[in-house]
Amino acid sequence: MSDFTNGFWPLYVAIISLVSIAACALLLWVAGSAKVSVKAGQVSDNTTGHVWDEDLRELNNPLPRWWMWLFIITVVFSLAYLAIFPGLGSFQGLLKWSTESEHQQDVTRVRDQVAPLYAEFSAQPIEALAKDPRALAIGERQFMNNCSQCHGSDGRGSQSYPNLTNSNAGWLGERGAEHIVQTVTNGRMGVMPPMGAVIGGEVEISEVAHYVLSLSGSPYNELKAVNGKKKFAACAACHGVDGKGNKAIGAPNLTDDYWLHGRGEAAIASIVKTGKSNVMPAQASKFTPDQIRVVAAYVLSLSATQHSDDDGKTGEKHDKGDKGDKGEKGR
Ligand code: HEC
Ligand code: HEC
User: Could you tell me if residue 51 is inside a domain?
Assistant: First the structure.
């Protein structure tokens, strides 16, 4: 693949390269044998006539032989290099080598090596792979390289990046192999429209926020929550009448006290006012379908083995009696 926009520039670059090398060779040839011309009448003592520091004189000799040879070797090397490797405009070089093809060869070689293992994996359901230590080891590396920058190296996410170690209630979608494969392949976009205009002013928004807080057992103002409950009808279409969410459209459960976008009245009021669109980019171009099954198995194992109500790391807690003293973790 050429990076040039049209046929002129590669030619231009190639000509400049060749002319420069030719000019170097010419200079070498001329300077290699010539001596500084001695002015008429000057006694020729084989010096250039320059004198420094009273008596330092420069001998009028041609360039040293070893230096000449270095120069010649350099010129020959550069011509050979340009003939073999791509460097002369868009000429591919005799070897037709490129970083791209070398990388592609490496990728193909490694894929061939692991093909038997993946063949074995593809015969098993993802749920079984989630218990296979070999699949988990590969899946973990894939996760670290491709997912951890957003979801954290332990999969617990951070604000606006979902915690993947949650039990099903804390997931935006239906926790399971199918949902994970689908999300990794196509990405996903969670959109909540701005609801400020529907709910009313600051007071009404604060009231509905307190009602939402009451659903999850967070600290809330009772009077505001009672008023807010009426307004919640506008939210129920997506979050459900009971606030338990709707996984089909990715509307989060508001009763589980896991807060993807931040804990507390201010965070809720802000999301009601301005809405939210949260995007996970599709990852399909980075993986083969078999690799996606393996990383999905690893993700599935995260939520199967641990439940994240132990240290409140992402501001999550399931214990309804605990009044929000663990704080939220921002980015
Ligand atoms: C650029 C950041 C980013 C990367 C990289 C990323 N994700 Fe995500 N992921 C997100 C965001 C943001 C969401 C939430 C989208 C939404 O709100 O609907 C998400 C959602 C998910 C979900 C759905 C969670 C739920 O609660 O339903 C899964 C599963 C998931 N990601 C797995 C992965 C895996 C596996 C990888 C690596 C192959 C990955 N993600 C890479 C940002 C990312
Ligand atoms: C059209 C559907 C829709 C409506 C109506 C809607 N929401 Fe949402 N809401 C969503 C979606 C989808 C998300 C998740 C966005 C994402 O993927 O990050 C969300 C997220 C939230 C969150 C963040 C939850 C968390 O874990 O941090 C809160 C709080 C919330 N909504 C409250 C409300 C309230 C209150 C109303 C009513 C005033 C409302 N929503 C109306 C779809 C909706």
Answer: no
